Amino acid sequence: MARPRIKDVARHAGVSEKTVSNVINDYVHVSDRTRRVVREAIDHLGYRVNLAGRHLRTGRSGVIALVVPELDVPYFAELARHVIRAAEECSLTVLVHQSGGDRRHELAALSGFGSDFVDGIILSPLALTSDDLRDNAGSPPTVLLGELLEEGADHVAIDNEQAAREATEHLIARGHRAILVIGGRDEPGLGTAEARTRGYRAALSAAGIAYDAAALLPVGAFRMPDGADAVHRALSGGARPDALLCLNDQLALGALRALHEHGVRVPEDIAVMGFDDVEGGRYSVPTLSTVAPDKGAVAKVAVHLLRHRIAEATRPQAGADEPAPAPLSPQDRVVAHRLVLRESTEGAAHRPGRARR
User: Distance (Å, rounded) from C-alpha 234 to C-alpha 222?
Assistant: First the structure.
């Protein structure tokens, strides 16, 4: 069977080939109805864009890269799904790459993997520095997620400091005072752990609770075994917390297991709050209270910003008598988050199937 072409899509949708091309290239001056009809025709016929041909015509491949530290971490897997969905709505293909949090791999991604195959990059960095961004100023358009570098690129994240403050305030409002932070990092810096620790400290200060650096339990990685190990160390060392603020849900799920092994009831003896709202926390026993970032919004804003940067990078040069459009300055976009309260802080009142007060 012959591979469907643009003219086949146009005939099936009842539009011109130019209109099909406009939809594929996501031009704005296409009605929602026409866009929907053309996409339905594309799906029905199984049409696939000829990337080599499009690259020659437009200077774009229609491919973007999503680079995350670890694909088997649920948060990044869920985020990748949202990015792929947002990109598909713009007729973009996503190449997913795992960096392992290794600076060499992040630098390779930042340079476009040594080729012009990708039009732009959405990158969640762990090891890059602001100097790296400056040194790679000629790299493909890049949008950063999560970790905030000082300058040089667009950035999309939740307000991690405010989110941690709200989570800690909720624990304090429930009567908790001895709150340990699993993964806490009380150091200068713009990383996620540092921001969440600042939010924790701000909530304690506002409530008149003295801060104790020993309440921060560092971890080697942000995985379930690390959360479990941190709790084992704390309880075996004589700590007597009444709540845990875990800086991601993987740490919190590991903490729940360790508390169970120590015979500690959750939340009656120790309440547990996580971060990220991954699916596993909805099915743990008890179910996990958490800070839920709007992952769909993170993905949509990141894809939107990247498309804008790609358009800037591939826009034809202005003529001698034409003023060049002013470039958009680096954007720092903050998306919404919310507290999701479940059994690990609220008890039986928030058990699935029971009415919430």
Answer: 17
DSSP state of 248: S
What is the pTM (predicted TM-score) of this model?
A: 0.80
CA 197 to mean position of chain CA atoms: 19
What is the structure's pLDDT at 356? Answer: 40
SS3 315: coil
Preceding omega of 141 cis (within 30 degrees of 0): no
- Quote the radius of gyration of the chain (alpha carbons, Å): 24
Q: Which amino acid is at 301?
A: V
Q: How many CA atoms lie within 13 A of 128 on its CB side?
A: 31
The Cα 215–Cα 144 span in angstroms is: 31
pLDDT tens figures, 260-287: 999 999 999 999 999 999 999 999 999 9
From 257, 263, 101, 243, select the one nearest 182 (Cα to Cα): 243
Question: Could you tell me if 258 and 279 are in contact, meaning their C-beta atoms sit under 8 angstroms apart?
Answer: no
Neighbours of 325 (CB within 10 A): 9
Our CA angle for 161, 165, 169, nearest 5°, is 175
Looking at residue 36, what DSSP letter applies? H
- Name the E strands within the chain: 63-68, 93-98, 120-123, 142-145, 154-158, 179-182, 216-217, 243-246, 271-275, 289-293, 332-335, 337-340
- The residue with tokens 């762990």 is 126
The pLDDT tens digits for 79-95 are 999 999 999 888 899 99
By the 8 A CB rule, do 290 and 273 touch? Answer: yes
d(CA 320, CA 296): 42
